[in-house]
Amino acid sequence: GAGVSQSPSNKVTEKGKDVELRCDPISGHTALYWYRQSLGQGLEFLIYFQGNSAPDKSGLPSDRFSAERTGGSVSTLTIQRTQQEDSAVYLCASSLSTGSGYTFGSGTRLTVV
Amino acid sequence: GNSVTQMEGPVTLSEEAFLTINCTYTATGYPSLFWYVQYPGEGLQLLLKATKADDKGSNKGFEATYRKETTSFHLEKGSVQVSDSAVYFCALSENSGYSTLTFGKGTMLLVSP
Question: Which residues of A39-77 are buried (b: 16+ CB within 10 A; e: fewer)?
Answer without folding.
Answer: eeebbebbbbbbeeeebbeebbeeeebebebeeeeebeb
